[in-house]
Amino acid sequence: MNKKYRLLALDMDGTLLQDDHEVSEETRKWIKEAVRQGIHVCLSTGRSFRDAYPYAKQLELMTPMVTVNGGEVWRAPYELHRRALLDSKLVEQMHALAVETGSWYWAYAVDRLFNYENWTDDIANQEWLKFGYTTNDHEVRHNILMRLQEMGGLEITNSSPDNLEINPLGVNKATGIEQVCELLGIQMSEVVAVGDSLNDLAVIQQVGLGVAMGNAQQTVKDEADIVVSSNNEDGIVEVIRDHILIEG
Fold first, then answer.
1. How does pLDDT run across 104-148, given as a tens digit for each residue?
2. Catalytic: which of 11, 13, 200, 234?
């Protein structure tokens, strides 16, 4: 068997998962067929390991995972390979900005998720992975973006048009998938990456085949090599059937 692509990197929300947060039966069937034929399938998500792993287990995936937008790379389930932490002083500044602008906010620490309703007074002694803002007020969101860019040292993306997600500068899904490639002994040119939001953009631009879902943000569609059906229409099935499980 001579296949061009050896790794399928899947975003979760808006990509692998339908809007009801489930994996369709048809998508599940084709993922299992890809694995049977020797394709590595890697979840590449903004979610934490705790929130992502139940889906990997459901799909019987034992390959590496990329979580919190590249903030963590897992060699195998429960076996951490690499972790990139946010400077707690930057988290203090981002929290102050969220309070000032009246925005909903959340942040992943290594051990738990904090948010607007459940924050901590001890920012300095937490290990922070990612900070996020959500607001449907475009002007407020743009103002936050400008202020974040002034801070420096931050990788700023989103997982929906209404939010901003922040990792340490240089940490994203592309760097995460590069680590996975090293672990598996394959090249980025042998990867197919699929996503729908700006946190998928870097990896879609850097792999062999970058795929945007039909429901993707326009910027992602513009940068992708191909666009498939939406997350509610089994777009992942198209990717596997038409672009991976073919001789090449």
1. 999 999 999 999 999 999 999 999 999 999 999 999 999 999 999
2. 11
